[in-house]
Amino acid sequence: MAVGDQVVDFELQDETGTPRTLSGMLASGPVVLFFYPIASSGGCTQEACHFRDLSSEFAALGAQPVGISSDNVTKQSMFATSNQLGFPLLSDPGHTIAKSFGAWRAWLPGGLHTRRRTFVIGEDRRIIAVIGSESKFDLHADAALEAVRKHQAAV
Fold first, then answer.
1. Which of 8, 30, 45, 142 is the most exposed place for a label (fewest CB within 10 A)?
2. pLDDT digits (tens, 9 = 90+) for 67-82
3. What is the pLDDT of residues 116-144, one digit of tens each?
4. β-pair type (19-21, 64-69)
5. Out of 31, 44, 89, 90, which one is annotated catalytic?
6. Which residues lie across from 33 on neighbouring strands?
7. Residue 131 forms part of a structural domain
8. 0.70 surpassed by pTM
């Protein structure tokens, strides 16, 4: 997926087991969909907590962060609760959505198949920005926030 591509609507369960659709989440504004390898790992915790810390700035722009990994609903729930994230964490156990976004790699050992990628998605389901870094955990939220600001200023 690249900037300008239109994302196909999808449905996954969130950390509470509630089904969530992309179109439903986009009804209230842009979605910042960030893929992470493993809930509760050090880097993923740092990344998710940085999104949490910037959540009021995202909300002021009408946008919301949404995390996604292959972890099951129970693990997503524990991750969300222990870090007081306050935004949806989607469970993609079959890697279906990760694969459709190009955020999956089959060759990496140890279960770290999900690439750390962030996609800023506009209400029309078009990708506004793509952020990718496996080791600069705070970069994802910072760059996504800047992309949302630019997008909202242009609308």
1. 8
2. 999 999 999 999 999 9
3. 899 999 999 999 999 988 788 888 999 99
4. unpaired
5. 44
6. 66, 119
7. yes
8. yes
